[in-house]
Design goal:
By secondary structure, the chain is of the alpha+beta class. The protein is about 20% helix and about 35% strand. The strands form 2 sheets. It has a 5-stranded mixed sheet, with no helix packed on it. Strands 4-10-9-6-7 form a 5-stranded mixed sheet, with helices on one face. It is globular and about 35 Å long. It starts with a helix and ends with a strand. InterPro entries: BlueCu_1, Cu-binding_ET, Cupredoxin. Keywords: Copper, Metal-binding, Signal. GO terms for molecular function: copper ion binding; electron transfer activity.
Length: about 160
């Protein structure tokens, strides 16, 4: 009996691994999948043990729109930011930090797989009334995007900009 259980668990583990790899596609990880130390066009995952400027971001539905408050954040190149997020809405929301082009492309993927959840260093999904955080270091100057990529949310206004000077 134990042998059957082991084979069953092994098969389940293999299926889970193959599903994860299939979802990951050629880039090697599901979603945006930035691991610690991965540099991107908009920076890299921050170090929670190092000082960071706190930026509070609220997610909500207001007047028929979905919003981030604030929807514009200015930072200095090299600065580490801790985004302290709170979902004050009645729906799930997420914050995905990337380039505008990456977020628009990922939004198309989300249309095909609307239940995809993000818990990567640059993304966090929150249920109503929940909190979360992202620590990110902005290593390059430019204008970057943060959006809720749950289908329909970005289109309803749930997007913002990070301007790195």
């Amino acid at each position: 009996m134990k042998r059957i259980k082991r084979i069953g668990l092994g098969a389940i583990a293999a299926l889970a691994l193959s599903t994860t790899i299939a979802l990951a596609g050629p880039g090697g990880s599901a979603g945006h999948g930035h691991g610690a130390g991965d540099e991107t066009a908009y920076g890299k995952p921050g170090d929670a043990k190092k000082p960071a400027r706190l930026v509070q971001v609220t997610m909500a539905e207001r007047d028929g729109k979905m919003v981030f408050i604030p929807d514009r954040i200015e930072v200095r190149r090299g600065e580490q930011i801790k985004f302290a997020m709170r979902n004050n809405g009645e729906l799930d929301h997420e914050l995905v930090l990337a380039t505008l082009q990456e977020n628009l492309k990922h939004a198309i993927d989300m249309q095909k797989n609307p239940d995809m959840e993000h818990d990567d260093p640059n993304a966090k999904r929150l249920a109503p009334k929940k909190t979360g955080e992202i620590v990110w270091q902005f290593t390059k100057a430019g204008e970057f995007d943060f959006s809720c990529l749950i289908p329909g949310h970005r289109e309803a206004g749930m997007t913002g900009k990070v301007i790195v000077k």
